[in-house]
Design brief:
Length: about 210
Amino acid sequence: MRLVFMGPPGVGKGTYASALSRRCGIPHISTGDMIREEIRRGTELGRRLREYVERGLLVPDELVTEMLRRRLQQEDCQRGFILDGYPRTLRQAEELDRMTRVDLALYFTAPDEVIIDRVSGRRVCRSCGAIYHVRYMPPRVPGVCDRCGGPLYQREDDRPEVVKRRLEVFREQFAPVLDYYRGKGILVEIDASEQAEVVVPRVFSTLESRGFKC
Ligand SMILES: [Zn+2]
């Protein structure tokens, strides 16, 4: 089960990938998490990655691709994997095909209003990083972290106007990747406009209907 998870920022694909990973025992490979981990470990690659991340620049294709190539060769990827955050460009999609075979590309969709509502309600604890939502997962006391009592704030990236712009950028940049998988006949769209309790079972049943079992 070699899967690619795609979708606009805030659609919740990380949550769905974790749930599937737990159920099927295949790794959830998030390139964003991998980049942060390499930097934290201070590896040679991590030092090169840090230069881009600290300056707020996009990490070059070659670096991300090289990191992923090594990751996919590890033992735990033999039965499959869930890729999250890669490919982002047509070039990366072609590169991925040279590394391995992708069985299915799942594209999670939701109307813009739903994503904006979900993301802009998010609040993060300044002290411990715990994440809340003003409606779906409110803290006991508004503005205060349940876990550590720290102050909650809204990340710059989560402001409605920023989310709106990121959605536009996503749509524009991602169209060729979607077309690529659609052309191969392995693109499946999944409606992710409801809460995760509804979407996760939908992911399982979609995979089962395609003959993937775990
Ligand atoms: Zn906290």
